[in-house]
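Chapter review: from sequence to fold.
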Amino acid sequence: MKEKIVQTAGRDALGKFAPEFAHFNDDVLFGENWNNGDIDLKTRCLITVVALMAQGITDNSIKYHISNAKAHGVSQKEMAAAITHVAFYAGWPKAWAVFRLAQEVYSEPITKLGEKDKYQNTIFFPIGEPNPYGKFFVGQSYLAPLSTDQVPLFNVTFEPGCRNNWHIHHAKAFGGQMLVCVGGRGYYCEWGKEPVELLPGKVINIPANVKHWHGAAPNSWFSHLAIEVAGEDASTEWCEPVADDVIAHHRSLENSRLLVSKISRINIQKDKIIRE
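The token string follows.
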């Protein structure tokens, strides 16, 4: 699961005074550049510390980036080695100044993130609190109300393997529900049909009066926005949990997908070796 870097410091500090600068800071520098996967985050953090040190910047900005480097796996030995190396090129006094800040950062204990917090860092919308409709789910789910005015909008998050029961959104006319997938990987399944894989950006239009379920893949967290479509005499009927044989079939499809993916990676590696 790739962590997504999200920055709001520009808008928080300069959103009104310099909105264009805030946009470049939050959306371009930290939005596009920091989330470019060509360089891993650990390396990118270390490069940033080196660049700031070379310029002689020893304020809170470099301390923030030292902390960020620590959080993304740069060890104390690696940080000390990097600062020492750069000292020969950028200057000894700069190294002394940065070492003082690095000592402060690395003397602070590392707070280990739980799986929920790690996943939260990959999605834009909040995970929310334990789902009050949890009795209709197998596994742990969470609900975050995003808007209760005009069109009700909720972010629903499923822990790996969690799914809701079969259910039906009844309506005499119109009605139904829309799912907008925003994180992780999951599945949607209508009665009598095969599950449909859900990835970020996928939109599912659920007609009224169709029996269905949705939830996370066995090895992935999953989130979707839930949008209730207004209908005549609309109501939701919660039915039985999804049967074990349906889930077993679902897991079989999952294992097949993983096997195909593994074989594909092996073939790519073989082709690379042959070309070299």
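Two observations follow directly from the output. The chain has two domains: 9-113, 119-242. Helices lie at 9-14, 19-33, 41-54, 60-71, 76-90, 92-107, 115-120, 244-275.
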